[in-house]
From TrEMBL:
Stretches the record annotates as Disordered: 28-55
Record's compositionally biased regions (Polar residues): 39-54
Lineage: Bacteria, Bacillati, Actinomycetota, Actinomycetes, Mycobacteriales
Source organism, top-level taxon: Bacteria
Name used for this protein in its record: Peptidase MA-like domain-containing protein
Length: 466
């Protein structure tokens, strides 16, 4: 995440949001339909029912989930009501109505695939599970009994989807798996949707992009294929600017990181704090933030990050294109580095290098990029240690200095040792939270100890200030 306090700078929320996925889940790739269309039908991986009663349950709910998939993806809003139980809340119903509306084809606009997200795969299905069956809350069960339900089940469900398809072939992202629970009720041979985790007394399932109203989509050709800009109402300035900036931003990140990343992205512009919070999770506090990068999961053995999205706050609408370009390059650096960055990597390296790539070529002197740090050095308080993670807290008094210090360390390494060794430095240090292994990585990349690195950095800062 990046911040806007006077000048653009990152905030702690970025590190937290960046390193914690919005949704989690794992599963194998499900073959797509031969023509690249949305796949539907019986689930390919489910647990085997132990008896005829459970098998009948599973078959009935599978039909319900297949109907839900077909209704949503065809945009048939009028059919939503036939899938829902009378006990379903208005908020739960609105979720599906909104999703179906967002799947409806829209009038073609230049740069749009057809105004909506394109999917290579999309389906709801029963999830394999070995957990004990959850009980339907007594209050909900009472409503279902009064309505004449003969059975109720807290069904383990997963949504499997992948952006792409024949109209957006360059997206081709790995399959995202979102796990949740649906309360379902039986009436004769039919099953109805009652609610999700919210009906169980917990937090409702976090919404997906297409479950918030007013979604439209445009494409941008980038070096790795088709990139996607998803936007909500009242975010036209930011989305239009991002579409123009994205190809060059991808190239700028590639110039530093190399071609070992997808070189495409999914960007999302939000119009209010509620939208932003819904998509990034973890409270989603905006503060002075400009953007956050979120993801579903990271497959470290295959060095693949699944479901990465760069989500922009409403503040992005007010940014001049050069400032927005800095934010975009910063976040795309996180996208490129995600699969080779430990979840608990130190923030001074992850945020510092992202800042370095984002800001490259936008300043002439230290004071332009790091005014607070410059004043600190001028006052005779040159840093003698790298900032710890706590110093990056968005609401803390030291956050601006921490981010500027992290950026300046990356800038020092690039200036003293070159960008190729800065990347090697990042790959070694960001791969671990173990200080001993970090020290070994510093020596392997730069040929100096941590203490010698910090001393050299301090001297460089003093020279830059002079």
């Amino acid at each position: 995440m990046v911040s806007l306090r006077g000048r653009w700078r990152p905030t702690l929320a970025s590190a937290v949001v960046l390193l914690i996925g919005v949704t989690t889940g794992c599963g194998g790739q499900e073959p797509s339909a031969a023509d690249g269309s949305i796949s539907r039908g019986s689930p390919s991986t489910t647990s085997t029912p132990a008896n005829p009663y459970e098998q009948q349950r599973a078959e009935g709910v599978t039909r319900l989930l297949d109907d839900l998939t077909a209704t949503i993806t065809s945009g048939e809003v009028q059919k939503i009501g036939s899938l829902l139980d009378e006990a379903a809340t208005p908020a739960f119903e609105n979720r599906w109505v909104t999703a179906a509306e967002n799947f409806r084809p829209r009038q073609f606009v230049r740069g749009d695939s057809d105004g909506r997200l394109q999917f290579a795969r999309f389906r709801y299905q029963l999830a394999p599970t070995e957990e004990a069956e959850a009980l339907v809350p007594a209050e909900v069960q009472g409503l279902l009994d009064a309505n004449g339900s003969s059975d109720a089940w807290v069904a383990p469900v997963e949504l499997r989807y992948a952006l792409g398809g024949e109209r957006a072939p360059g997206v081709d992202e790995p399959e995202v798996v979102v796990t949740t629970q649906f309360v379902v009720a039986r009436y004769g041979d039919e099953w109805k949707l009652v609610g999700d985790t919210g009906a169980l007394g917990g937090e409702p399932t976090p919404p997906q992009l297409w479950e918030l109203p007013g979604l439209s989509v445009s494409d941008a050709a980038t070096a790795g294929g088709t990139s996607v800009i998803a936007r909500y109402l009242r975010t036209s300035p930011a989305s239009a600017n991002l579409r123009k900036l994205l190809p060059d931003a991808v190239d700028a990140v590639t110039a530093f990181w190399g071609e070992s990343w997808d070189r495409r992205a999914v960007l999302v512009t939000t119009s209010d704090q509620d939208e932003f919070a819904a998509l990034v999770g973890q409270g989603g506090a905006i503060g002075a933030a400009a953007a956050a990068t979120v993801y579903s999961r990271v497959d470290f053995p295959r060095r693949t990050a699944i479901g990465q999205r760069v989500v922009f706050t409403p503040a992005a609408d007010d940014l001049a294109p050069p400032t927005l370009a800095v934010v975009l390059r910063h976040e795309l650096t996180h996208v490129a580095a995600r699969a080779q960055t430990a979840l608990d990597a130190p923030l001074w390296i992850t945020e510092g290098v992202a800042e370095y790539v984002g800001r490259k070529g936008t300043y002439r002197r230290l004071a332009d990029a790091a005014p607070d740090l410059t004043e600190t050095v001028r006052a005779g308080n040159t840093p003698t240690a790298l900032p710890d993670d706590a110093a990056f807290a968005m609401d803390g008094p030291t956050s601006q200095l921490a981010y500027q210090s992290a950026w300046s360390m990356a800038a020092y390494v690039a200036d003293r040792y070159g960008e190729e060794r800065l990347k090697r430095f990042y790959l070694g240090v960001a791969a671990t939270a173990d200080p001993a292994r970090q020290d070994a990585a510093i020596r392997a990349a730069l040929g100096v100890s941590r203490g010698e690195l910090v001393t050299g950095w301090g001297r460089w800062l003093e020279g830059q200030v002079r």
